[in-house]
Amino acid sequence: MSSEPDNTVGGRPERNVLALNSGSSSLKFGLYRVGSPRTHMLVSGEAEGIGEAKGKFHAKDSQDNSLLSEAITIPGQRDAVVRVAKLLSDLKMPAPVAIGHRIVHGGPKLRQHCLIDGAVLQQLGLRLRTNACGASHVCHPLRPAAFSWASAGGVF
Which pTM was predicted? Predict the structure, then answer.
């Protein structure tokens, strides 16, 4: 992931941000260009049926045109994040400079929007191993956050 802005509009940098929203058996995603007067969706989609025998992965472009719809087995949340990364690469989408993840409840001390770093992951009770997501004690909705954080070099 690059720390440089992708483009500038009116002297203001535009950056690409990947948003993730995971549930127990799904992962919704969107790649957005932000920084100009408005936010522009580049690609969005969902991995459904994660951990089930019959899953589905689909994506659409900014014009709501289907880019991909496939029936696949997605064993876990980490596999869903990897599939999103492969899709973005295959589509030659710009790399995000930030990854956002919706976390519904961060506990008694995390009550405001914040950057997710090692301290925040520790506060959430996540312990990262070398392989980032192999620990079975990491609850499903937070696995994409932990994996994405590790894949991004520890920066959201």
Answer: 0.68
Q: Are 115 and 123 in contact (CB under 8 A)?
A: no
Q: List beta partners, residue 9.
A: 12
The CATH number linked to 134 is 3.30.420
* Domain, as residue range, for 80: 7-151
CA atoms within 13 A of residue 137's CA, in its CB half-sphere: 6
Of all helices (H) and strands (E), which one includes residue 81? helix 77-90
Within-domain flag for 94: yes
In-domain check, residue 66: yes
Helix (H, G, I), strand (E, B) or coil at 73: coil
- Walk along the chain (156 residues) and give the pLDDT tens digit of each residue: 444 444 555 556 788 989 988 888 899 999 999 886 778 999 999 999 999 999 999 999 999 999 999 999 999 888 998 899 999 999 999 888 888 777 665 666 766 767 767 777 777 665 444 334 443 333 434 445 445 544 544 443
| Residue 103, number of CB atoms within 10 A of its CB | 18
